[in-house]
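go over this chain:
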Amino acid sequence: MSIKDILLKKGWAGRTISRSETIDRLNPILQLMSGVLNEHNSNPGSISDDLVRTLRMDIGKFSETIVSCGGIAARTAVDSNSDASTAKSLETELLEALKAEGDIEHQMRTRAILGVVATNTELRIKELA
């Protein structure tokens, strides 16, 4: 949590990244999320249906954010090109990518979405454990 977060609570001050930068940063995460969804769809029952539904909604939130910035949501999953890829390792990779965005000066709405998606990812990881 930065000093701005503490002082301004829900408000924001200063320069945030541009729309094109937002698109460039969110599309790879969206592709990771699609890969996670593909993994869960390939292994039904690995997590509850509610968590899979939440993942689909999170993908929709990311897609809508990208489109609202004037971009095209690249939902095609990145090929993990490894048979050893498991849902838990993909979820962990996704969580790391989401947390890395915490240091970036995203717009408030994008920051909120990143936080919610990270929380939902942590819930799925706990269920997979």
